Amino acid sequence: MQGPGDRGKDIYGAGDVRIENVPDSVIKHPTDALIRTTASCICGSDLHPYGSMKPEDRPARMGHEFIGIVEDTGTEVTTVKRGDPVVAPFAISDNTCAFCREGLHTSCAHPQANFWDGEPEEGGQAEAVRVPLADGTLVKLPVAPASSLIPSLLTLSDVLGTGYHAAVAGSVNERTRVTVIGDGAVGLMAVLSTKGLGAEQIILMGCHQERTDLGREFGATGIVAARGEEGIAAVRDLPGGHGTHVVIEAVGHLPAYDQALGVVRPGDVISRVAVPQYEKAPIGFGSLFRHNIRLAGGPAPARACIEELMPAILDGTIEPGKVFDANTNLDGVPAGYQDMADRKSLKVLVKP
Amino acid sequence: MQGPGDRGKDIYGAGDVRIENVPDSVIKHPTDALIRTTASCICGSDLHPYGSMKPEDRPARMGHEFIGIVEDTGTEVTTVKRGDPVVAPFAISDNTCAFCREGLHTSCAHPQANFWDGEPEEGGQAEAVRVPLADGTLVKLPVAPASSLIPSLLTLSDVLGTGYHAAVAGSVNERTRVTVIGDGAVGLMAVLSTKGLGAEQIILMGCHQERTDLGREFGATGIVAARGEEGIAAVRDLPGGHGTHVVIEAVGHLPAYDQALGVVRPGDVISRVAVPQYEKAPIGFGSLFRHNIRLAGGPAPARACIEELMPAILDGTIEPGKVFDANTNLDGVPAGYQDMADRKSLKVLVKP
């Protein structure tokens, strides 16, 4: 927070992530907190602008998953104080409005509620971050930044909550058979969450064996290493037939949605949590309507999931931090993006 | 069933419905029943081919809502017998498969399961109909064909069950505020059903005062007689704000879906029961995804609703038959189509 300015990651366009010295983050509102970042990571959704951002939109600060130490707080902040280790979810919320009280923090009605994408001067892939609505947004951690639990606790920022939301939005329970489409970090967290909710059958559709092996460790009962019509046929041929009750679409591209339509059971549900990279898609008589297929999901209210899921991490019941298969510092972030884009890394943890 | 053949309604193309002598319906399978129709009606969905059917597809037998007397039964039929008054839902099902047992008769897995549209030689707007899977499909009525309850019981074939399914698929309960888009017969049945499930606020969006007046009688607490942006703003300005928890889309055209997107509350649900006259529609970040809007609905399992809803008709709690504002005989059916298309009639009851 001192010196010539903080260092943070800016994206300049497709394939162009740079580390830069940027102005110090400072408290702007009495409800802000300043956080010195101790751990952050790269998200699958960061790869969308990495793959397609137009130069005229550049640059944008990156990163929306982080753990850090409170450095300073605005005068109205009461729930965290200087020196506290905290985790931040990927959406800023007041935790008091009607939507937050219902657990939908990603639709918080507060005028300052936002995604980190909407805070152009802040990002978690940086040395320091100004966190608006600190009382609503941040959650204090009961462990030190050097704890071996930090990778798992960092997944509370987004990827674990997102996988869990996928399962909850799909109403997974002990009687459901589930297909998870996509063996990326979100898909694997969806497997872990689905297992936690007791699903009797969990099919993971993915073509990268290291990832699907981790999926088995997280609870997948079967792997389908095929896409499109071949993958659909493989799922529909499984015991029970007619597809599975819940299909979690953890990719965000249209072919994955089409695959979901192919493997969902009549009367059941497709749950989407990866940001759709399309706006229009089939929902008429020939797709969703004919067999009463429901569509659910959206951005996960990670803030609501943190207190719900943290105990299972602290007591060792789950170890979601296993999704991090690479570590780097800020200087290594550009290479981390490329490794994730090339599928060399599953998910990269960043220690500034 | 005797003489030169039955008379039934065939559609030849857009705007071209003709009454014709057609071959006698006969028992083909041991699970069939032959019904002499005593009451049928014209459905809003019949108006779709009436508006757009291509001449090369002609002709098709019409009508999927009817009450009648069992004239004959195949050797395997056990639940109805000659002389029984019965009502038929708009889908043929065996009432025993896994989907039927779950109450999703419209996805019945039996090879002979079908919509009446899929039975080219049969239709309810006729003197007689062969009903496949009679044990699964037909429900015996406890009143005679001359009963004053017949119009209301006839709505069990489709329109009441469809409105009820819209409300159930939207998870309407005592705490929900509901918008119903469309003041046609399905929209009005959705109002009636939503009221029955105890919704605290029911906004009916419709521009035909005679229909919205009936909507008020069925339980609507407010009417918005505007469409598009103006209509959306009117609903969003209502107490509670942010739109309503449930939006029932009872029209089937894309502008109605767009209207539903405009008035649904974050985290809540759009329930569709009118057959979509589109295949692709917005479901990405800018429409459903951003605020975790769910999409539900499909063809109503009317068969499942019949036994559930019939008692309320028999004891006079509800009088859904009020949607019929015109009566005719078979000769009057072509004019009935045109009157419904011109919005002169809400729903036409046909007594062959």
Which terms would index this structure?
Rossmann fold; 352 residues; seven-stranded mixed sheet; homodimer; six-stranded parallel sheet; 2 domains; globular; 28% helix; Quinone Oxidoreductase, Chain A, domain 1; alpha/beta; 19 strands
Your description of this structure?
- The structure is a homodimer of 352-residue chains.
- In chain A, α5 crosses α6 (185-196), α5 (159-169) crosses α11 (302-314) and α8 packs parallel to α9.
- Chain A contains 12 helices and 19 strands.
- Chain A has 2 domains: 6-158 and 301-350, Alpha-Beta Complex (Quinone Oxidoreductase, Chain A, domain 1); 163-297, Rossmann fold (3-Layer(aba) Sandwich).
- Chain A has helices spanning 47-52, 98-101, 134-137, 150-154, 159-169, 185-196, 209-218, 228-236, 254-263, 285-289, 302-314, 333-341; strands spanning 6-13, 16-22, 33-41, 60-61, 66-73, 85-88, 91-92, 114-115, 128-131, 139-140, 177-181, 201-205, 222-224, 244-249, 264-272, 280-282, 294-297, 326-328, 348-350.
- Chain A is of the alpha/beta class and 352 residues long.
- The longest helix of chain A is centred in the C-terminal third of the chain and has 13 residues, at 302-314.
- In chain A, strands 3, 5, 6, 9, 10, 18 and 19 form a 7-stranded mixed β-sheet that branches. In chain A, strands 13-12-11-14-15-17 form a 6-stranded parallel β-sheet, with helices on both faces. Chain A has a 3-stranded antiparallel β-sheet with strand order 2-1-4.
- The two termini of chain A are 13 Å apart.
- The mean pLDDT of chain A is 93.
- The interface between A and B is medium-sized, with 35 and 35 residues.
